[in-house]
């Protein structure tokens, strides 16, 4: 069984109450036998929709932030400030566990330490760091280059030293599989495991042979993360199949953006052709429905309690 428990269609749609998130929740879940399913999000609305659908964990995707905030590809254009801003907005709105894509840490070990501190204080539950050179590029694009194994080990030690709580997980990602091959990726992942990371992410897995080698080395020792990218290098599998293979967490980082882009393209084409949104109304929320979901009336009533006191 996966951790996606869909709510009833009749469940009320309203804003989540603001309360302290539970930083130990994700760490505990990863020690369970069931896989954690984390859809990719890029803002507070998407995170709240994931929460309402029954997910307990989301993945704040650097790629999705680049796609939506910049309208650009995932080629290292983001800054730590943009990621922290998105993380703080998500934390204000939801109590979900959030795994954050921190790219390369935006520089050397000192930059990594600063990035980890900022994201942890913004509410991140897990912080992912990769061994590409800076500026990086999407793990499923060609032309990636890597820092040395020793440099990355140093950066991971810096990340582990910088976190304030052991419940803030540090994820070591290697992109070596697509650059140097599977054996090199496993060698790097072993070094990152020995450095003390809480989870390993070997990007760009190509098939069953890669999975067999990876699991032979790490299954039962440390949680392993899977990445499902529609049209990417890794063959798509559902969460149950990935769980049976030994993965502890699966992310779908850019799926929401791809769905929204497809829908929005159709919406704009319809509006341009018809000069009205009428033909799209059955695929939209109306003004009242959206405000009901956002909890507008409840927030206005809360504010009124403080008027003229």
**What is the multimeric organization of the chains shown?**
single chain
Adjacency order of strands in the biggest sheet: 1-2-3-4-5-6-7-8
Residues in β-strands, percent: 5-15%
Mean pLDDT score, rounded? 90
Provide structural commentary.
By secondary structure, this protein is an alpha/beta fold. The chain is 45% helix and 12% strand. The chain has an eight-stranded parallel β-barrel, surrounded by nine helices.
Attribute tags:
309 residues; alpha/beta; eight-stranded parallel beta barrel; 13 helices; 45% helix; globular; disordered N terminus
Any chance you could write out the topology, listing elements then pairs?
Layout: H1 25-30, E1 36-41, H2 44-53, E2 57-60, H3 62-70, H4 80-93, E3 97-101, H5 109-122, E4 126-130, H6 149-162, E5 169-174, H7 177-180, H8 182-195, E6 199-202, H9 208-218, E7 224-227, H10 239-245, E8 249-252, H11 255-274, H12 287-294, H13 296-304
Parallel strand pairs: 1-2, 1-8, 2-3, 3-4, 4-5, 5-6, 6-7, 7-8
Short recap of the structure:
The chain is an alpha/beta fold and 309 residues long. The protein has helices at 25-30, 44-53, 62-70, 80-93, 109-122, 149-162, 177-180, 182-195, 208-218, 239-245, 255-274, 287-294, 296-304, and strands at residues 36-41, 57-60, 97-101, 126-130, 169-174, 199-202, 224-227, 249-252.
């Amino acid at each position: 069984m996966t951790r996606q428990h869909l709510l009833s269609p009749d469940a009320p749609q309203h804003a989540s109450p603001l309360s302290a998130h539970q930083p130990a929740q994700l760490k505990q879940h990863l020690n369970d036998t069931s896989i954690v399913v984390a859809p990719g999000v890029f803002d507070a609305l998407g995170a709240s929709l994931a929460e309402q659908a029954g997910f307990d964990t989301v993945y704040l995707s650097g790629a999705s932030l680049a796609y939506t905030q910049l309208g650009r590809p995932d080629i290292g254009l983001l800054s730590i400030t943009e990621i922290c801003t998105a993380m703080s907005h998500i934390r204000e709105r939801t109590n979900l566990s959030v795994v954050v894509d921190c790219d390369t840490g935006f520089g050397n070990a000192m930059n990594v330490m600063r990035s980890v501190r900022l994201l942890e204080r913004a509410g991140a539950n897990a912080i992912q760091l990769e061994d590409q050179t800076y500026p990086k590029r999407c793990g499923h694009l060609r032309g990636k280059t890597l820092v040395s194994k020793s440099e990355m080990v140093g950066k991971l030690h810096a990340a582990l030293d910088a976190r304030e709580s052991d419940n803030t997980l540090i994820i070591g990602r290697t992109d070596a599989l697509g650059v140097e091959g599977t054996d090199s990726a496993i060698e790097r992942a072993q070094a990152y495991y020995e450095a003390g990371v809480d989870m390993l992410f070997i990007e760009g897995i190509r098939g069953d042979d890669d999975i067999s080698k990876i699991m032979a080395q790490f299954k039962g020792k440390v949680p392993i993360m899977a990445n499902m990218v529609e049209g990417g290098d890794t063959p798509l599998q559902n969460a149950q199949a990935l769980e049976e293979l030994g993965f502890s967490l699966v992310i779908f980082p850019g799926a929401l953006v791809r769905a929204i882009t497809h829908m929005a393209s159709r919406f704009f084409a319809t509006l341009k052709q018809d000069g009205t949104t009428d033909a799209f109304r059955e695929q939209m929320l109306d003004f009242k429905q959206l405000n009901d979901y956002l909890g507008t009336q409840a927030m206005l009533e809360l504010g009124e309690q403080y008027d003229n006191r």
